[in-house]
């Protein structure tokens, strides 16, 4: 079945690349957000810009937008495929459920890497010196964060009644998550109940991990965030597997 | 007809408090086109999806090619071909990509070029799914259902929404499948389709099979009456034919006369009587009841009500 998985993944890549709006949403919007916000608030490492430090890490914001864009796209694809009976048709083949959904995750991760590459290129072009980070490590952190947030995407895709509601519901869930992720102000400033909530949100741990890596930290030092992302992935995937609807 | 390829015994399936299938028992034999017919919501699709292994039956015994469709779904999917009601593929998948993907999923695959050619899709290989017409989409789904040369093909509301020309083309394809020795199990709410295509049909309503047989048998059994309508400018025609055996009613409307009766010999009797009475006839036709009439008689309402 490996050939089936590879072929399905390759087809899903091509199908996605043929949709102009998908490419704009997943590749261009994070870069635009990065450039526009960077222009307004400034970019760069806090320690080198002490005179006028940016209020938050703009490249990490761009990276989070990439992750969130992937979730939007995943939820849209799954709900549209379900509504159109595409999931049902694929399920009536020898393809396993994990293969059918796994292909979409791989596609989203590939486009996540592509979007990050574009963001880095744009950063080098427009904000010279601002992006100074171990790219391999940072890409790894973004991918781990994206996988963990995608598992919530599957849960959202299971719950939304129709494809029409997918966008609004995903927005209503993800943007507040982003707001309290600790990127814009420390989580400690939130009321205690919300602080507890943030521990169950992959965006919080993804933000912490990416900020740590950005600030020169290593993976070993960030083991708490890494473990949290892995556990939340397992947790949300397990719930999704229970409530996922194929039609 | 030989072995049952599909046997369904006392199948029941509910969704919450809604009973979709109440009690369905039927057998589909090797090499026939079997139609499950009934109005929307009668339980046709649920029955078919239980048989395909996509849904778990609440009650009853199912066997397809000797396999339990739910427990042995993986083994079954290699040997059956399916087409779902109102199915779609990825909007921007190309025809050849879909064929190629499906080809990798099965160990034994037919010559796909020949298959596309036979289905009239060879010029659409590079077309996106979303650009295909309704008929072309359905032909592609038939291609996907046939790609691994399955022993049984399940087709759910195959021609719904197609124009008459596309529908006829699809009918020919289905007959072809049967003529190559395959078994076809289909659902339809189009009585004309069932009558033209199916060797045998089961009429289903409110989740229960209410009658099974060949279309001709069902018509003969439930709607044996025949009507002969002819036009003649001679006077007193109705009275001259009134004494015929098996005639139940004669009605005249100007020059047009209708004779209602029943029995297989009724039409012959009328023709003979017209001939022996030397009535000059300027127009002549017979009206034979259809499955639609059978359905109306059995259920008390039309299939689209």
Note the topology.
The complex is a heterodimer of chains A (247) and B (305).
Chain A: H1 2-17, H2 20-41, H3 58-83, H4 86-91, H5 97-126, H6 135-159, H7 163-179, H8 192-199, H9 202-214, H10 223-243
Chain B: E1 4-15, E2 18-29, E3 33-37, H1 44-51, E4 59-64, H2 73-77, E5 80-83, H3 95-105, H4 112-118, H5 134-146, E6 152-156, H6 164-179, E7 183-188, H7 191-197, E8 200-205, E9 208-213, H8 215-222, E10 225-231, H9 237-241, E11 247-253, E12 256-262, H10 266-276, E13 283-287, H11 291-299
Helix pairs in contact in B: 8-11
Strand content of chain A: under 5%
CATH architecture identity of the largest domain in chain B:
3-Layer(aba) Sandwich
The number of helical segments of chain B is: 11
What is the approximate shape of chain A? globular
| Low-confidence parts of chain B | none
Number of domains of chain B: 2
Q: What strand order characterises the main sheet of chain B? A: 5-6-7-3-8-9
Residue share in helices of chain A? over 70%
SS content category of chain B:
alpha/beta
Q: Please trace the helix and strand order of chain A, writing H or E for each element.
A: HHHHHHHHHH
CATH topology label of the largest domain in chain B: Rossmann fold
**CATH class categorisation of the largest domain in chain B:** Alpha Beta
Q: Which secondary-structure class do the elements of chain A indicate?
A: mainly alpha
Round the Cα radius of gyration of chain A to an integer and report it: 18 Å
Low-confidence stretches of chain A: none
What string, H for helix and E for strand, traces the elements of chain B in order?
A: EEEHEHEHHHEHEHEEHEHEEHEH
């Amino acid at each position: 079945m490996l050939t089936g998985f590879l072929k399905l993944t390759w087809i899903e890549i091509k199908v996605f690349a043929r949709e102009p709006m998908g490419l704009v949403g997943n590749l261009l919007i994070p870069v635009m957000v990065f450039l526009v916000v960077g222009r307004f608030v400034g970019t760069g490492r806090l320690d080198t810009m002490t005179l006028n430090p940016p209020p938050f890490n703009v490249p990490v914001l761009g990276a989070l937008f990439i992750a969130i864009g992937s979730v939007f796209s995943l939820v849209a694809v799954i709900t549209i495929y379900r509504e159109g009976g595409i999931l049902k048709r694929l399920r009536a083949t020898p393809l396993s459920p994990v293969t059918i959904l796994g292909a979409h995750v791989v596609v989203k991760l590939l486009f996540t890497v592509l979007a990050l590459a574009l963001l880095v290129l744009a950063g080098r072009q427009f904000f010279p010196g601002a992006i100074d980070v171990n790219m391999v490590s940072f890409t790894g952190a973004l991918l781990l964060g994206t996988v963990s947030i995608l598992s919530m995407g599957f849960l959202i895709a299971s719950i939304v009644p129709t494809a029409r509601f997918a966008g609004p519901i995903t927005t209503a869930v993800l943007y507040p998550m982003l707001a309290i992720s600790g990127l814009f102000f420390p989580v400690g400033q939130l009321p205690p109940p919300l602080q507890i909530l943030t521990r169950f949100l992959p965006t919080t741990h993804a933000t912490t991990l990416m900020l740590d890596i950005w600030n020169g930290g290593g993976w070993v030092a960030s083991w708490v965030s890494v473990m949290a992302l892995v556990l939340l992935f397992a947790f949300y995937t397990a719930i999704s597997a229970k409530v996922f609807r194929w039609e | 007809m030989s072995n049952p390829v599909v046997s369904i015994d006392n199948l029941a399936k509910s969704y919450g408090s809604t009973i979709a299938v109440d009690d369905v028992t039927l057998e589909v034999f090797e090499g026939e086109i079997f139609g499950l017919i009934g109005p929307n919501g009668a339980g046709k699709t649920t029955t078919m999806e239980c048989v395909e292994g996509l849904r778990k039956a609440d009650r009853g015994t199912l066997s397809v090619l000797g396999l339990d469709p739910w427990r042995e779904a993986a083994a079954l999917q290699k040997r059956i071909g399916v087409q779902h009601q109102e199915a779609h593929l990825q909007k921007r998948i190309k025809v050849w990509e879909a064929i190629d993907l499906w080809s990798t999923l099965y160990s034994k695959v037919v010559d796909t070029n020949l298959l596309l050619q036979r289905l009239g899709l060879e010029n659409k290989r590079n077309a996106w799914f979303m650009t295909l017409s309704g008929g072309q989409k359905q032909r592609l789904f038939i291609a996907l259902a046939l790609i691994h040369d399955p022993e049984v093909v399940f087709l759910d509301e195959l021609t719904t929404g197609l124009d008459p020309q596309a529908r006829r083309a699809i009918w020919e394809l289905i007959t072809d499948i049967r003529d190559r020795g395959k078994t076809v199990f289909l659902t339809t709410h189009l009585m004309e389709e069932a009558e033209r295509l199916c060797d045998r049909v089961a009429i289903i309503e409110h989740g229960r099979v209410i009658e099974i047989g060949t279309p001709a048998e069902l018509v003969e059994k439930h709607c044996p009456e025949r009507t002969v309508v002819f036009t003649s400018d001679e006077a007193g025609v109705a009275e001259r034919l009134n004494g015929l055996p098996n005639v139940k009613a004669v009605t005249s409307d100007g020059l047009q006369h209708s004779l209602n009766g029943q029995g297989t010999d009724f039409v012959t009797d009328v023709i003979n009587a017209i001939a022996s009475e030397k009535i000059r006839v300027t127009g002549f036709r017979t009206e034979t009841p259809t499955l639609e009439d059978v359905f109306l008689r059995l259920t008390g309402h039309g299939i689209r009500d």
